[in-house]
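Next comes one such specimen:
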Amino acid sequence: MKSLLGCAAAALLGASVTAAAVDTNWAYYGAHPSQDRYSDLTQINKSNVGKLQLAWRFDMDPVGDSQTNPLVIDGTLYGLTPGLQVVALNAVTGELRWKFDAGVRGTESAPGLHFTGPSRGLTYLDQGGQKRLFAGVMNYLYALDPGTGKPVPGFGEGGVIDLRKGLRGDPQQHYVALTSPGVIYKDLIIVGFRTSETLPAPPGDIRAFDVRTGALRWSFHTIPHSGEYGVETWPPNAANDAGAANNWSGMTLDVRRGIVYVPTGSAAPDFYGSQRPGNNLFANTLLALNAATGKRVWHFQGVHHDVWDRDFPAPPSLLTVLSKGKRVAALVQSTKQGYLYVFDRATGRPLFPIEEVAVPASSVPGEVTAATQPRPTTPEPFARQSLTADLLTQRTPEAHAWAEQQFKTFRSAGQFLPLSVGQQTVIFPGFDGGAEWGGMAVDPRAGILYVNSNDIAWTGGLVESVAGGGPSASLYQAQCAVCHGAERKGSPPAFPSLVGVGERLSAAQMSDVIRSGRGRMPAFSNIQSHALIALVDYLRTGHEDAAPTQGVEDKREMSASLFAAGSPQRYRFTGYSKFLDPQGYPAVAPPWGTLNAIDLNTGKYLWRRPLGEYPELGTPDTGSENYGGPIVTASGLLFIGATVFDHQLRAFDTATGELVWHADLPYSGCATPATYFAGGRQYVVIATNNARNKNAPQGSAYVAYALPQGQF
């Protein structure tokens, strides 16, 4: 959305801006449909950025993971709270204008317990004088009046559609959540969804709905049906049995070409894929679809037959680069491996070579992994690729000795070493790295990319499923152990321990969390009635319910829940495990997180620096885990929060990587900022929370910074 600035306002924006159309809003998730996270604004520049000060703060829920990149349009900020309430704020003062509460919470038996995200953004429509704000609230897509926050009656059923419907089987049995916003193309809103990584999981269909009526207009099957392209990469009947291969990370739109770019995640079941032999198109795939019809234009699969949870973690970014002497409309896709793939966005032709590299075969009975995996030759990966003994922590002699002892028990041989039975395999960068859902920022005309990376190790493995143990234990192993581990110990803080959970939550509260989901945990609507009661008892005690199933109906319900979990697999995942030393710090040498600038015209790095620190260590430039991405401005500034432990919002010089400003946030800025112009000033705003650091005071707030009046 454009605003025409007069001469006086143009002067406020800086000498480089003349009286011309300047994008003063942040009207899209990621700034623009191209997901460039780039702003033309220049009022805040290198000469005055040091004067930035707090402009306003809006406090939200006391707990929860706020990941929203807010929209700011004509003086109003639209955002989501961790509790999935939609709010409209005065973008100059932070005052609340309206709030929409869909009422998605736990049952009355657990007052105050409610789903706490994540949700990363909203979608705004302004066509022919008609304005709508689309909000995902778990499995519901609402169309709201942006002036009042009230649902639009003509959309779906009273202003909402249920995204569980129309996928496969009973909609009530599906877990679906719209964690990243859809994109608008003409009169369509195109969406994906988040779902479970264990069976049962619905297929990850990409769907387009009419923006006015909510009617389904087209659907693309990421698990192909009979006769469709790619069906041979699955076993027979996969369209009915397999799940996921879904888009949870968001999409990118080339408006002029009418192409929507859709990165997908892994197929279910994850980690052990004996039930899904083949390369499994279109899981782990960058899809280019005709936005009007949903027809495939081209595709690239980044991981064949994924058993490492290597989803494409963020939407790609569009930019223009110089390739072989010609300017090319390009697309760049980030990955958890630390790879960057660069394509001609119209044809899918790689702009840098991609080679299929031979990788180790799985030694697990029943598993047949792919013989090769794709790897770009340029640019070099932005995260370390293999953990060796010389990369273990040197933080203290004791920590190093502990890490050495642990490392000797691991398997570590770089990317794409399949998991094994009975021994942990190093995943480096980890399951939550290198790039994550915060995405990249690009200078779309200069062809420069900026990406932050997690650079710590995790481990994972497989264990043989043990027969017996009772139906509750079997249900736990089938549905819960993938995250919380076979012994319920989890991998805190991302995957909490369930040992002693009965002391923290009542049986009713636990039932609500299982049915509705919470944080990163999906809902398990397939677990019903007696099976739910029995599972809660097992979680509280660690053993089967002393009062076994009695009646025929109870037995039938338990059997149905076990059947819904899918055929028992011979091997199951041991759970996500970060490689941390006994004090809770990464057991690998720093940097543990980085910020990188890469010239995509050449594939060369311009600069790289550690991002984040642990304040209590007193050691600068260690880097830290980081979630949320950067934004860049025409004045040559990059703004980023992201760092989990130091609660900083930072500004860097895009040319040199020099830190030119930083501010203390009330909580971690684990979200992507936005910048906008309102009331004569340029603002930088970010959502903050401490959900990823349970040892810190909990809370969440939107925080905005601007230059003092008269000091532009």
About this structure: The helical segments are 7-13, 238-241, 397-407, 470-479, 481-484, 507-516, 529-541, 552-564. Confidence is low (pLDDT under 50) at residues 1-20, 106-115, 546-550, 555-560. The CA atoms of residues 447 and 600 lie 6 Å apart. The two ends are 24 Å apart (CA to CA).
